[in-house]
Predict the structure.
Amino acid sequence: MRKAWVFAAILLISISVSLGGNGNRPKVLILGFDGFDPKIARSLMAEGRLPNFQRLAEMGSFSELETSIPPQSPVAWSNFITGMNPGGHGIYDFIARDPKTYMPYLSTTVTEDAKRKLKLGKWLIPLSRAQVKLLRHGKAFWEILEDYGIPTVVLRVPSNFPPSGTKTRSLSGMGTPDILGTYGTFSFYTTKPYVITEETGGRIYIVDNFDDKVETEIVGPPNTFVEGSPDARIPMTIYLDPDYPVAKIVIEDTGLILNEKEWSDWVTLRFKMIPFVTVQGIVRFYLKSVRPDFELYMSPIQIDPRAPALPISTPPDYSKELAKAIGTFYTQGIAEETWALNEGRLNEDEFLQQIEFVFDQTKKMLDYELDRFKWGLLYCYFSTSDPLQHMFWRFRDPMHPMYDPELAKRYGKTIEFYYTRLDSVLGHAMDRVGPDATVIVLSDHGFTSYRRNFHLDTWLYKNGYLALKDEFRQESGEFFENVDWSGTKAYALGINCLYINQIGRETEGIVSPGPEKEHLLDELRNKLLAIVDPETGEHVIAQVYKAEDCFTGECVDEAPDLVIGYNSGYRGSWETALGKVTRTLITDNMKAWSGDHCMAKEVIPGVLFTSKPITNPRPALYDLAPTILGEFEIPPLPEMVGSDLFPRAIEPS
Amino acid sequence: MTAFFSLILKPFENGHAHAGMLFISLVTGAVMLFLFKLTSNQQAMKEIKNKISAYFLEMRLYKDDISTVMASQRRILSTNLQYMKLAIVPAVVMIVPVVLIMIQLNLRYSHRGLDIGEVAIVKAHVAQGVDILQHRISLTTPEGIVKASPAVRIPSLGEIDWKIKLVKQGNHDLIISDGTRQITVPIYATSRTIPIYAKFSKPSLAETIFNPGSPRLPCESLLASIEVSYPEMKFDWGFISLSWLWSFLIISMAFGVVLKFLFKVE
């Protein structure tokens, strides 16, 4: 009888726990909408087209969110993740430089090859594991939540490759490479005798159509198991119907049929390295044209989430679980194929179809996690608004050199349309989590027009701060190919960063740290702020930030000496980003990449919507980590520079 | 044979493929053990295994005497070969039922039926010497299936392909016409684990053995074969996902190891 009572009590407790849900345990939903701009949001809210954002703003708050210096996504999201500025987390730009060689490297991740290898004929067998390391310093807020036993899910947050944490279910985002180790290299097979000019985002393969048959190869990653690391390759044969606009693509034992103007589903590629070792990737094909010229587009080769060649999730099996639940998906950090549009391999409609795949997969991921979200933290990142604004801003800015009134009629409202779709995502998620959950929506920065390129290294050269070995050429190739370091006082690399060629830090430094450097920094700052574009009469640069004024933390030694905050309409050129001196100083931006955010932080703030009122009228990205911890009554780490945005009855302890 | 397997696997048709695989592996393990016991010289095998154990013991006892260890290893090797010799006859006897079972499992577990929205490629090969551009080879789809592409005709391979898409669950028949006669090709759009015939050929002994129960193409048809690319079926065992073949081999062997103690088989 006594046993029966004990059993009944246990049963009742179990039932009440399972039915009672999360009790008083906090539930925080965060949606990160990359590049969601406050000006566009306000305008659409005024028109009543963002009802769910309006609802959220009325429940709590809506304000501009101070972005990072510089306002680049990896930097900004690192501020969000760590609650620190770049001086603390060490990410200052998409690319960083090694002062010993002046050569750039990707700022968020480093890959180290196996330290020892055994040579067997032409094969090189690694005796230790190659390693991929995340260069972001500091503890991510979800790692702190993990320590307190709080369930966390973090989907596709940038600057998190390989993903940090252990118990958090996380999928890496921006910064995750394709299988070639790049940020996304597409392939384009064509019979058209293109004059291949500057192709930065893809590889063009000129192929022959012989008797309605095209034989070619898919070029994969370098095979590091073989001496000389030749590219791994898979043969591909394409058969074209003699009359109809349709083709059959055969890759090893897989065949697929594509109509002209049709995207394929995911195709699995297995690159054989050595016997029993393969690297698996996935691609989508787009048959652009069958006749008169054959044109086939292949997406960058993604890491296959079902058999990841590199760590893309925590726990490691989480990517497999997601793929099983929602189907195979894009894993590359910047999944939207902007370079293909920029270089004319895809047109606007084709690009929109492609970004729709990414948008759809992210919604499915969010839904999958919402289904089992009982308490804790759920973060999901939507990237689409960022690449879309980069590529389609020219259709909403009549002053942009790439503005075309006819195309503007067709695509001029696309950005707004996607804002309304994000509103639907928000509404759906709010309904799913219920009224007790804390909901936060944020963007890392806003957006503005990118009409003119400013070649900062060229300006340094023309003003005597940078010297060339061969003055006659009046230019240098990428990575300072013609630069004479013995006569160079300052150089620029990355979109916003300027460095002093400092003695003791740079290998061939000529500027002494101390007063000489300080004087040079002030001189550069004043001259840069005074630059006026002769074509428009506008100031090119709105702000010049000195490292010592804006960065604090253990990584300040790696900071650029000056960060250039461009005015709206201007941006550091692609050439400057790669350390190139050009002949002209300011040029029109003639690329489809027409909107940007690598300006002064004051020009392009992000947005913050919260379901609870906030105390600080000027919130910043680094305030979010302490705020999230506060929701779980966890105190912020001492190194965090931000502060809790929500009023608390009891201080977290 | 196909009807017999359909009967014994009937309880596992509706979403119980894993249980079906476990069942058939258990039965196979038991039957193979029984056959092995029946066709092998159990006494001789027992003696050989005892000898091998003795040589291992010898190696452990005289581990400091290199010449004894080497001699023991040589004896283990030669005794192992004797054991394998004794296993040849039962292996030859067992291979017949195993192949027959595997043919049946391949029919049921190598592919799954189409789901709504899924596409498949229908590939037809013409008989040697037939020019596909000269004949009006066509595909007609029933309600429930749509043609998702026009034909891709590849004269150099004597091949013609179509892409089809399932829009409605159920039993469907495609009609392929070679210009003179019509051929019916069943399309399996089901979640049940039933025999799925993915290839259709003209009658032959090989077809009778390896593709039992499959509808045949008429002998006088211009088409030599028709294939439908169904999605591959995998068995997800929680920690690993395997094809039917690996699943069957591993599980039936595991059952064999467990049952051999029960059946007292050497």
About this structure: Residues 16-110+239-263 of chain B form one domain. The radius of gyration of chain B is 26 Å. Chain B has a mean pLDDT of 90. The helical segments of chain B are 2-8, 17-39, 42-61, 66-109, 205-210, 244-263.
